[in-house]
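Re-run with default settings, no changes from the original entry. Doing this only to confirm the output is reproducible before filing.
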Amino acid sequence: ATFIDNKIMSLWEEKDPLLRVFDSRIEKLRMYNVRIPTLRTSNYQKCTVLKEAAQAIEQRLVKIDHTAIHPHLLDMKIGQGKYEQGFFPKLQSDVLASGPTNNNRWANRSATAQRRKDRLRQHSEHLGLDNDLKEKYIQEARSFGKSLRQPKLSDLSPAVIAQTNWKFVEGLLKECRMKTKRMLVEKMGHEAVELGHGEANITGLEENTLIASLCDLLERIWSHGLQVKQGKSALWSHLLHFQESEEKREGVIESPGGNGLERRRSETGLNLPCLRVSLIQDMRHAQNMSEIKTDVGRARAWIRLSLEKKVLSQHLKQLMFNHSLIKKLYKRYAFLRCEEEKEQFLYHLLSLNAVDYFCFTSVFTTIMIPYRAVIIPIKKLSNSITTSNPWICVSGELGDTGVMQILKNILEMAFECQNLGKLTTVQIGHDNAGFLAKWLVDCVMVRNEITGHTYKFPCGRWLGKGVDDGSLERILVGELLTPVVEEDLSKQSRTPPQQRSPTTARRLSVTSLAGKATKPNSGQIQEAIGESINNIVKHFHKPEKERGSLTVLLCGENGLVSALEHVFHHSFKSARLFQKNVFIWDFIEKAVLYFETTEEDEELREDLLQLKASWRTFCQYVNAINSAPRNIGKDGKLQLLLCLGAR
């Protein structure tokens, strides 16, 4: 009964090991019966022993099994064809050395005879028809044959050529509209489904597949109507011609309109240097990538980089409206010489600027990328320099730079490392050496010099012993800055009181820095906790490709750590008259001391005995954080404890 149950359950579950052995033996018997049916008896068949099975395997390995083809004439000498039945014969060296011969003569003859029979049959059927039907079938056959073969240019009138080309151009434009729509819907995810764009043929496609499809479309558009094809990639060939003409005319030209320049200013006037963003510069980035060997690969890298920087439409517009170069490379009927269609094409590509792509950063993960970091101190309340030895470590989704020492009195540094992906955190600190060791840092700005992505890591805290919470290092959570116009840049790069690092908002209401900051009431704190927890739950319920950064949800501006800190700081007496400020970590250390002394008391109530395991775990975490060889402050230790507890 168990065997029968296992046989039934194997239809939808994995087979039982013993059942698998039984089925394999049944299958072996069936194959044996098909190959040698005369040796199969209806009563009993003796099983093979291990020794016989091993000998059979050895024989198969020594001589290759061969299934003979149908009998045919052999071109060999007498005696050379002797071989054992069921095994491949010895190869004839003279036949192999003679070269190929026409062995298809029998097949050619049979095919020729079959065609002759078909013609005779059609001729006999044709003779049985009357004259009207004969004429009708002859005309149909002529028109059908003419439509099948490739039409000659002499057979087509200028009107037909224009109409055919117009349909092709319209098809390219329609395909561009559909592809851009699919890319937008894919990035919008569930929001697109709610807006009524969740068709089955659109959703579910991978981003890389859609971008590769867009690259193929651009190659076909740039291949249409070429005067002379040069290289494997028509787009890259056009870009090389454009680069050559521009460098001859006036060197490297900047993008028109000034939208390519990015400037980040701080409250102190310190700013990131202008980053030149131009079509030629992006081409050079693709040309400098040693991992790419072909023109097609360079063209795709350039497309991905332009798409990530949201300048693909702008670059292609600059390329397509160089009329002298277009006339030189393309015929009159080419897509790139249709003015109205070009405008619509660029309009469709412009819609891709509405979403954020990281298709260059996430694909080329092994390339070396230059970065630039600027440390912006708060100069109004402290010196902008420090006599200690500062260091910085930049981390991203793909790795980190490790600890990098910063030269004294230098607030800006450039470095090159393997692609870090999207930047997540920055660790900054110093060794507390020298006379001016206390350092008040407003924020840290880090920019990818290829993609132009600029990340801001708010701080607003002191670094140094005997000030603030006594921390010598801070972990800053970053946010990607969106490109803005130049007059708004100075506003964006400042650090408002509500956008400081994880523990900044609370400290601003305690220290002299932010006496103007308002403390949240209990209702606002409860709402903030609910919102932060809901965001984390939603994060894990989303598809993986739609998830954001969990670090921001935990330690960001409105993250879980910030909300829980507000819980502890509500009505907390941190400031003492003529005494040092008291931190939440001081309260936690006192709680640990209480738990450890209470645990030694054997006369505990029954309800407290059940909490001893939780007390013990809590004390282990706090003691481990205190004994860690890192110079993080008390607020940093609280943040670490909350993150470990959430995990």
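Confidence is low (pLDDT under 50) at residues 144-151, 199-204, 252-269, 485-516. The longest strand covers residues 368-377.
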